Amino acid sequence: xxxxxxxxxxxxxxGNKLASFATPTILGEIRRHFRDRxxxxxxxxxxxxxxxxxxxxxxxxxxxxxxSPSIREIAEASGxxxxxxxxxxxxxxxxxPASLSGTSPDGEGDDSxxxxxxxxxxxxxxxxxxxxxxxxxxLPARERVILHLRFTEGLTQxxxxxxxxxxxxHVSRLIRRSLEQLRxxxxxxxxx
Length: 192
Prior knowledge:
By secondary structure, the chain is mainly alpha-helical. It has two domains: 2-96, no CATH class; 122-186, Orthogonal Bundle (Arc Repressor Mutant, subunit A). 64% of the residues lie in helices and 4% in strands. It has helices at 2-9, 18-37, 45-65, 71-78, 82-91, 121-137, 141-152, 157-164, 168-186, and strands at 101-103, 109-113. The chain has a two-stranded antiparallel ribbon. Strand 1 (101-103) and strand 2 form a beta hairpin. The longest helix has 21 residues, at 45-65. The radius of gyration is 36 Å and the shape is elongated. It starts with a helix and ends in a 6-residue tail after the last helix.
C-alpha cells in the first residue's frame, strides 16, 4: 500500500529519486498500519497517539534519570494530564493481549492452553442431586421415609425406629442397604 501511494504521489520533475521518496512513505504506511490495526480491541486514535508520545517520553526520561519515571514525570514530559497517562497506559494491554496458550499462570513456558474458565462446584452438586433424586425414587416408600428422617430431619436410628415401628437394628440395615443401592445405581462417589 505504501509503495502504491508513493508511486501515485511521486513527482519526477522535483529531481528526487523514486527510492528516496518512496522509503519514508512506505515506512509511514507500515507505522500507521501497526498503530491503527494491531490493537486487539478498538482504542480511540487519541489514546493511541498518547501511547506513542508516552513511549517516547519514557525512553527519554529513563535514559536521563537512570530509573523508571513516575506518572507525574511522564505527564510533565509528554504534556498530558496524569489521568490521560494512566488511561493510555491501561489501554496498552489492548494492543497485545495475553496469550491463551503458551504460558501457564505461573509464567513458565508450556505448550498446553491456559485454563480460562473456572470449574463451578455448583454444577457437580446439581448433577449429584439429580442422580441422587432418581436413585431415591427407585427405592421403596418405607426406605425413602427412613432416609428422609435420618438425613433431612436428622433423627437418630432409635428415633426413626420408634416413629416407623421397627427395631433400631432393622433401621440400620435398611439405611445401609439403601445407601448401597444408591451408590450402585448412581455410579457416583458422592455417597462415599
